[in-house]
Design a protein that fits this description.
With about 150 residues, the protein is an alpha/beta fold. Helices cover about 35% and strands about 20% of the residues.
Amino acid sequence: MKQCGHTAWDSRLIEKYNYSGPRYTSYPTALQFSDKLDIEKMQEELARLAINEQPLSLYLHIPFCAHLCYYCGCNKIVTKRHDKAAPYLARLFQEIETKGLSFERKRMVEQMHWGGGTPTFLNQDEIHSLMTHLRAFFNLLDNDCG
């Protein structure tokens, strides 16, 4: 291991990870996205997943940003108009309800990730409403620190 000032360089570790990777990670990966949606297959898969007892992880995409970050590759809407969030949240609430009902609150949500965009584009009331809706349809942990 080579020392440079206070930084230690481990050449074996650098070599281990010296390859191209995705710009960001998502599941499914962007290469797996499709415009084709087979509702029947999706419902069958949700029913199959509902009986599994493993904990859930949720991802909430809040696609709004007040400013453009030129390095960002995320699906986003750049706007300073905060009223744009209301119709999106209404549809997101429908999606939460649909998916939540399919799991019947049987599986604990152990992780929740918010991405975007900039999730803090939402105001305090919108965030509170979103969390209330999530708690109504998913089995969330009772504390705020996991």
